[in-house]
Specification:
Number of strands: 5
Order of helices and strands: HHHEEEHEEHHHHHHHH
Structural class: alpha/beta
Radius of gyration: 23 Å
Strand order of the largest sheet: 3-2-1-4-5
């Protein structure tokens, strides 16, 4: 190879063991030694990863540009430690690709950084307020709040308070109607009427829950996001939940439990780049080993 002593096969294997197999550096060393009689040090493993990241960085940047072209993007975030300090892993995922960034901020400037100033699609998200502050070039943003989050919160109260159980069943029933309207195949005018009908029913549900003090927090969340519960009826290609982002984020959560904390900026960048590429390749039913080796 032009750089170092290792060819593309070892570079690929080592990097995928670190990020796809979730092995700490010491276990990568042990595995390569056991399977291939290849003796490396921990620092060599990390150097190999950095060499690979530098080689594929441009593909990662291309992913960000491509994500911006999609009409529907699913976004979520979860905490992670970098040198013991609180950071956030952000995921921006579509039906065919995923883009990760790790930032100290949990505010809308991260959304603007990734999606840009002129994103005119729909964002699937949870109830975090930062998404409402993100504006496109028309000073407007289309959101679809996650029904699964809301249902879980109402269900938790129903399990604790018997008087909430009928309200939970009613809320579930509204969600079922939303799903049926989204999948109905009816023309836009008919779906618009259904949207207005279910908005009135949700407003009625909110009014009925007002005497219940135990439901104040959940009711406030639902009411604050009132304009964003029925976007999926007008745009059927948009899912009514944000489960897609949560599923794609799960692998990062597992890695977080294994590593505990990222050590430095290089490790943070490597995590962003390699997890974005590996996750995207799997979404596209591609072989990560073959894809990464081809890039090298």
């Amino acid at each position: 190879p032009a750089e170092g002593s290792f060819d593309k096969n070892i570079l690929t294997h080592t990097t995928l063991m670190k990020y796809d197999d979730r092995l700490p550096a010491r276990k990568v060393v042990n595995t390569l030694n056991r399977n291939h009689s290849l003796q490396l040090t921990h620092s060599t493993v990390l150097n190999i990863v950095q060499r690979v990241v530098r080689a594929v960085q441009y593909v990662y940047e291309q992913l960000k540009i491509q994500v911006r072209t999609f009409f529907n993007v699913y976004i979520d975030e979860t905490g992670i430690k970098v040198q013991g300090k609180q950071f956030w892993i952000w995921i921006f995922t579509t039906i065919t690709m995923t883009f990760f960034v790790i930032r100290k901020s949990r505010h809308c400037n991260v959304v603007k950084e990734v999606l840009g100033e002129k994103f005119n699609g729909v964002i699937n998200c949870d109830g975090w307020e930062t998404y409402k502050t993100y504006k496109d070039d028309n000073d407007n943003v289309l959101l679809q709040r996650c029904w699964a989050h809301a249902i879980r919160e109402v269900e938790a109260l129903a399990e604790k308070y018997d008087e909430v159980k009928p309200l939970f069943k009613w809320f579930q029933h509204i969600f079922v109607k939303v799903c049926k309207a989204r999948a109905s195949g009816k023309p836009l005018s008919a779906r618009t009427r259904l949207k207005e009908k279910y908005e009135k029913e949700l407003r009625q549900w909110i009014d009925v829950t007002k005497p219940y003090k135990e439901m104040k927090t959940v009711r406030t969340k639902i009411e604050n996001g009132f304009d964003h519960w029925f976007t999926c009826i007008i745009h059927p290609e948009v899912e009514p939940t944000n489960n897609r982002a949560e599923r794609m984020l799960r692998e990062q959560v597992v890695i977080r439990k294994i590593t505990g904390t990222l050590r430095n900026e290089k490790g943070t960048t490597a995590n962003e780049v390699m997890m974005s590429l590996i996750t995207t390749w799997k979404q596209q039913n591609k072989n990560p080993f073959l894809e990464l080796r081809a890039l090298l």
